Amino acid sequence: MAPYYKIVTSHSALPLDQAILDTMEQQNKDELQKIEDRLAEAEKQEGETEISDALRAKATYLTKIGDKVRPTLIRPISSLSEEMADVCGVADL
Questions:
Q1: What span, in angstroms and rounded, lies between the C-alpha atoms of 61 and 23?
Q2: CB-CB contact of 51 with 39 (8 Å)
Q3: pLDDT tens digits for the chain (93 residues)?
Q4: Is residue 36 within 8 Å of residue 62, measured between CB atoms?
Q5: What's the pTM value of the predicted model, to 2 decimals?
Q6: Largest Cα–Cα distance in the chain?
Q7: How would you write the chain as a 3-class SS string?
């Protein structure tokens, strides 16, 4: 929740506690690393469904912690379009 905490403290709704912020940032970093590892494993050895699940987990987590920028940077649009064509079939798009 570090991004959300930064927003709240920047509007003076709460005083900034650097120790809390550092803890939150470390927790976010650890969780995102787990998700990235899961995504890398899915891309290497698993199928499209597992890749999609990992991307969805990453987007959900980033949204949960209040990150407004990184969810849009998960994958380029062209890459997502190709994946959707693989999963759905071209006629379904």
A1: 17
A2: yes
A3: 777 788 888 888 778 888 988 898 899 899 989 999 998 998 888 888 888 888 888 888 888 888 776 655 555 545 555 555 555 555 544
A4: no
A5: 0.65
A6: 53
A7: CHHHHHHHHHCCCCCCCHHHHHHHHHHHHHHHHHHHHHHHHHHHHCCHHHHHHHHHHHHHHHHHCCCCCHHHHCCCHHHHHHHHHHHHCHHHC
